[in-house]
Each structure stands twice: as C-alpha cells, then as structure tokens.
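Why does this matter for the project? Reviewers at the last site visit asked to see concrete outputs rather than summary tables. In response, this paragraph embeds two records directly. Each consists of the residue sequence and, immediately after it, the corresponding structure tokens. Nothing has been edited or filtered.
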Amino acid sequence: MKPSITPQRLHAIPCVWMRGGTSKAAFFHAADLPADPAERDRVLLLAMGGEDSRQIDGIGGGTPLTTKLAIIAPGREPGVDVEYLFGQVVAGENRIDYAPTCGNILAAVGPFALDAGLLPCLPGMTPVRIRMVNTGGLCTASIPTTPAGVVYHGTQRISGVPGSAAPLALHFADIAGSSCGALYPSGAVRDVIDGIEVSCVDNGMPVVVLRAADVGIRGDESPAELDANLALKARLESIRLAAGPRMGLGDVQHKVVPKMTLVSAPREGGAIHTRTFIPHRCHDAIGVLGAASVATVCTQPGSVCDGLAVPAAHGAVSVEHPTGEFTIQLSPGSDGVPAVALLRTARPLFRGEVLIP
C-alpha cells in the first residue's frame, strides 16, 4: 500500500529542476511563492534544505553549483519578456544571497519561460528578453524552437557538461558595472591590496583578478588541491574583504561577491588560464559572467593580465578553467565598454512539486 501525503502536513509548490550551463537550480514561478520576501525566503529555504550544509532534508545539492534557485515572473516594462531573480542558497547558514546574478542559470530562463507558456514559441528561433533583477542588466537569449516548443537536442558541446545539446546564444547589454556602478569600480585597472596587484572588474559579475604566481601557486592545481590550501584561502579572503569596499560593495563578509580569480599563462591554446573561488570554494569551471569579467581584463592594457594573456583573435577570448574552456565574444560597445555574447546549453531535469512542512 502506497504511503499517503497528508495535505495538512506538507505543502506542495510547483518546481522545475533545470540545468543551465554548468550549474543546476530549482525554478519557481513568482506567482507560486508568497509575495512577502521574508515569507518567500522561509519557504525556499525549507524547500532547499538551507539549514544543513548537506541539505539532506531538502532538494539542494550541497555544493555552490547545485544549491541555486531562480524565481521567474512576466516582464513589467516595455522590451522585457521575463524577469529573473537569482538566489544563491548558502547551505549551512540558512540564508539566500541575492547580491549576484548567475549567467549559467540565466541560460535556462528562456527555455523555462517558453515551456511555461509565458510567451509563444516561433519557428526556428525565439528571442527572449530577460531582465536580471539582481543587477538590473538585460540579456536577450536566442532559443532554438519550433511552434510546438523548445528544441533541446543539438550538437553544441560545452566544457564541464557531458554530451551535446541545442546551442543557446546569450547577448548582454548594459551589464558593465551592474553591481558596482562602474566597469573598474575602484577607479583604476590595477590596484595593490595586501601587497598583491589586482584588477577589480564588474562586466556583469564583480571579480577580483590576480596572478596565481603572486600568491605562491602555479595556477593549474586541481580545485581539490586549492580547497585544501588553507593558507591560500585565508590570503584570498583577506584580499576579498579589503576589495569589497573599494568596489562599492561594502562589507562582503556575508556576500558571495566579489569572486576571486587567479590567472596564469594559458596551457591549452586559450587566452588565459584560471582558477576561480566563488568565493570560498574553488569552482570546477568558471561562471558565465565571471568569465566575461575576466575576459574583459584580458583585453585591458595595464591590467594584471597585460603581458600574461594571449591577445584575442576577432574579440573571441578563450578562458581556460579546470574542466575545459569558455569562449567569450567581446565587441566594442557604443560607450567603449565591451559588449558580451556567448553560447550555452540548458535543459529541464524534472518537473513536479517540492513538498515543504
């Protein structure tokens, strides 16, 4: 006999678990969640299991890449189809950080919106104009579609994800300084913090870029090896805490931005080699918008990447990371700030209801 779930004890909320790029997130319709932000967060933390670092009593995956959520709503302004609020659940601390956005999860927003019927699918390709609520930036995602729905099968491969899928093109507008107010928020392309030269940048994601050799490592160590290097992590955190106020982010002790990216000479024919802390754990790859910010620094004369990065051909900057590479296409913007475009893949993993007390 099947066990029954008593409605009086568990509450069901519609949820879609989706992979976007190299991350996974629980997707929710804003209309299915409480309107009050505090009550909404209480519900989401119960769903994800935010109190426990392993998230045993929730659907979160216990790692920064698998304990994310996206709240989607119809656009409320002309030229915007959907609004995307990203939340990074801080497992073990029972809180959600809404300071950054996430470019990987962004790749799944267009398919989610189309599958949900928030706008119709067109023959061949459907553009979805997305407002990133966290930062205010705008992205136009080009989604392969037929009138019957989203096309998920294809030949596009991305590093860190097995197999292939249909390519999703993401074009970003007005993302420079979206969190910090300026592309180089400290006012300089190179600063010295704790005796280490850094470049503080925000082209969609606040990042502190520094040379791996300057903190005593090669730069091609495995994420596990770097995570075990407690002295390195303490040094990076000291620099990060000092960089926060300089970048206009204030006290960042309890924020997941800025990210910290260590750069070194490319190994696999790319423009630069990276190891990124997000911010206290080494990423197995690199985030979408984090890669955009690093690529921007690679093309900036006088930055910490000057003389280290290989010049990009036709604006295509290949950012090497632990599981492959990520190519960012930079083009001149009308205001001199590089515009960003890239390819990702995404797909739904399951649709159903998450049950909470």
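We now turn to the second protein, recorded in exactly the same manner.
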Amino acid sequence: MHSLPHDHTGARIKRLRLERHLTQRALSDLSQVPYSTLTKTEQGVIPASPHVIASLARAMRVEVATVTGQPYVTELRADELDVLIQPIRESLDVYDLGADPDITPRPHRMLHDDSEALLAAVRKGEIKRTAGQLPGLIIEATTAAHVAATSEGWLLLADYYRTAYDVASKLGFPDLATIALSRMEWAAERGSGAVVGAIYRYMRSLTYLRAGQYRTGQRLIRTGLDALGQAESGRTRDVVTGQLHLGAAVMAARAQSGDTAVGHLAEAERIAVATGEAAKVYWLAFGPTNVGVHRVSVHAELAEYDTAARLGRELAVPQQWPASRRSHHYAEVARAQMWSGDLDDAFANLLRARKAAPQQARYHQTVRETYDGLEAAKRQLPDTFLSYGSWLGV
C-alpha cells in the first residue's frame, strides 16, 4: 500500500459509507459505481474520478465537497485565505438593504474599471489579491446600484457577484458560490441583461456538474441558450452561446452521453471558427483554443484517457491565454496521462498547473486526486514529487 494521507478521498468515502451502515456491495448498487472501482478507491489504489465522486455522494446523500474534503481548511489557514471568506459572505448579505448612508460610491466608470481588474486578476490566478479587495467593492457597488437604479449599475453589481462566485468555487466553498450566483441572478434581472442572465445559468450549471446533478445542469444550459435569443445578435452573443455549448459538452460527457457531448463540441467549434479567439469577451476565454481544451475534458470524462492524453499533447495553448484556464487544462491533461500510464508526463503537467496559477492549483480537486493517483502507482518519481505533495498539504 502506498503512503497516502489518512484522510484521502477513498478513506472519506469508506468512513461515510460505514456511517450509513452500507456495505461496499450495497453502495456499489446504489451508486452504479462498479464494485471493483469502489473497493480500489477506498483502499487508495486508484484515485476517484469526478464521475465516481459525484455518483457516490449522490448515493450517500451528501455534498460532493464532503467527499472531497473541501474546503482544505489547513492550507487555507496557512495561506491566510481563511480570514478573507467571512467578509465576502457579509458583503453578499446586504444586497437588498438599499443604499448604505455611510458610503459615497465612486463614479460608475471607476467601479467598472475595478471590476474588470478583478476579473482579470482571477484569470491570472491571483485569488488572494482578489478575495482581499472584493468585499469592500461589492458593498460600494451595491450602494451605487441602489442609488442610480440603472441597468448599467445592476449589471456591474452582477459582475462583482460573478467574481465572488469565481473566488468561492476556486477555494472550495460551494455554499458560498451558490449564494454568489443567486445574487448575480438577482442583479441581472434588475439590469435586464439577457447575456449576463445566460452567463449566470452557465455558471449555475457548473455547480450542478460538480454535484453530479447532470439533468438539472443540462436544463440550465437550455434555458441559458433560450435567454440568449432575447439578446442582440453579434459576436458577444455568439461567444456566450459557444461557451454554453462547451459547458453542455462536458455535462453530457460526465453523464456518459458521448454522442450528445460530441454534438455540442461540434456546434461550439462551428461558432469558434466565426468568432476567433475571444478570451476577454466576458472573460469566458472562448475560441478555438477553448474548444480544444474542452475536447480533452470530454474524452477524459468519457474515460477515453489515451485519446484525451494524445489530444492534450497535440494542443498548443498560447502563453497569453488566461493563466487560470491554462492551469486547469494542465491538470486535466495530467489526469488523463495518469490514467493512461504516462506518469512522468502527468507529473510534468501538474508542475505546469502549479507554475501557471499556484494559488488555484493548490486548491484544485483534480490536481489533488491526480497526485494521489501518481503516488499510488508505486513508481519512482523525482524528489520534487514529494515536495509537491508537501506544497499541496498532503
């Protein structure tokens, strides 16, 4: 048996199963996870894939975060990020109290520029900086929106709520991410923003993807596409439409519906040919590169790891592409390479994920599960592998 931390994902699955007085066979039947996969996962012989984690969480009626052990409190405390979460919660809680009489908000343009700077910072992987600045800006933008009562003000507030969602989801706080999304919807409705409303549905669908509730996630994608029918035609609408198809492709693949996933990828690719690279349009990073990145993810979710690893090797991700997206992609490729037996290349991509966006990679579930899988492979890896585990906190 390899040396994993006592509370690795497999150990948590076993503990949760025993608390519910379930045998391995019973949990396998309830979750439709193969018995051999469950037993090996509990033992730490193989890592848990997102599909397996979601299926087991659903069967045991717990949140996915309970299975994965998120948020990683010890690491958050070490990075002094834990103290930044409560102020964000508090800033999200004053949305309906009207204007704060003690705050004189700056002009809309200045608040807009700060919002764009935070959106850019998140995509550079600067989570701590963003989390520190965000609460005060949300409170200021909240007062500004109530005072002005204009579409522009409400949609700007929706952008700040979106950033709160980004921070919460990247740090492993699904409950806070859900609150941020509900606030985003609330503000988008007041701003009558069809495009922002569609982006909200896209982001909300991702929370259902992580929770393994694929049917609901697919319904949200469909309503998002319907909402875009009310938006003005043009490149912006096309970009958001393409991104929704990419989200739908991964959703379908996670639900093991390969034909549907391929269909959504094809539609996204068709749109991307017309839009070209549009990384900064609502900071969705849409374009041909993102289609290629999602193609890797789709094949990985379908357990076609050799194909995913090959596509990952062949895809050239531009250095100017958002660091957070590059980091996520490298983690996905590492997972595929680990499953296909390319252990050295898998670790090399974990290193790339850390270099691109270290704060994000440290709290990324795929990074951690892939690290555990490499450790379980009982193959000599360089000394830097152990130091990487120390950095992760495992």
